[in-house]
């Protein structure tokens, strides 16, 4: 992988999950406060072998699918008013590795606590955990709000 293309600003990991949309929204607020830019990053990789004889459809384009996920997430986060100076990147590679590399030189990395692959009940997913441990900049992990406790009447 080439060196990071992000010289500064806030990098956001986007996988299409609700928490990654919230991460984009948090990054937008922080970018205003820090007077900086946002780079939204979606990573994709081609599964070599699933072990079940699955193979992708012949016309499948994982890069195009990643761009679609990224664009849909941006629309969900910002509607038709994206933040000024927003950059987008889709990169082939495993999400944690890509985000750590893209955050070199960044002011901050923002990720959701769990993406589409998360197991319910885990505090951190594997990607957010790896980013929190290895990113070369501060990492903000966005969690789901806690549900209010039920009270008995």
Distance between the termini: 58 Å
Strand order of the largest sheet: 3-2-1-4-5
Q: What form results from the Cα inertia axes?
A: globular
- Topology order in helix (H) and strand (E) letters: EHEHEHEHE
Q: Please state the structural category.
A: alpha/beta
How large, in whole angstroms, is the Cα Rg? 16 Å
Quick one: how many beta strands?
A: 5
Give the biggest sheet.
5 strands, parallel
Poorly predicted runs of 5 or more residues? 116-123
Q: Any chance you could write out the topology, listing elements then pairs?
A:
Blueprint: E1 10-13, H1 18-34, E2 38-44, H2 62-78, E3 87-92, H3 95-102, E4 108-112, H4 126-134, E5 139-142
Helix pairs in contact: 1-2, 3-4
Commentary on this structure:
This protein is of the alpha/beta class and 153 residues long. The chain is 33% helix and 17% strand. It contains four helices and five strands; from the N terminus they run βαβαβαβαβ. A five-stranded parallel beta sheet has the order 3-2-1-4-5, sandwiched between helices. Helix 2 (62-78) links the parallel strand 2 (38-44) and strand 3 (87-92). Helix 1 crosses helix 2 and helix 3 (95-102) packs parallel to helix 4 (126-134). The longest helix has 17 residues, at 18-34. It is globular, with a radius of gyration of 16 Å.
């Amino acid at each position: 992988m080439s060196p990071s293309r992000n010289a500064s600003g806030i990098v956001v990991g986007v996988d299409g999950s609700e928490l990654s949309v919230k991460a984009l929204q948090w990054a937008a607020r922080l970018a205003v406060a820090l007077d900086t830019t946002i780079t939204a990053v979606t990573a994709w990789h081609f599964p070599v072998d699933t072990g079940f004889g699955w193979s992708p459809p012949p016309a499948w384009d994982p890069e195009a699918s990643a761009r679609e996920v990224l664009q849909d997430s941006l629309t969900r986060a910002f509607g038709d008013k994206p933040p000024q100076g927003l950059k987008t990147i889709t990169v082939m590679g495993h999400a944690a590795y890509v985000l750590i590399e893209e955050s070199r030189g960044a002011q901050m990395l923002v990720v959701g606590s769990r993406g589409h692959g998360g197991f319910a009940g885990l505090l951190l997913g594997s990607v957010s955990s790896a980013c929190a441990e290895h990113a070369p900049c501060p990492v903000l992990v966005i969690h789901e709000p806690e549900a209010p406790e039920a009270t008995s009447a």
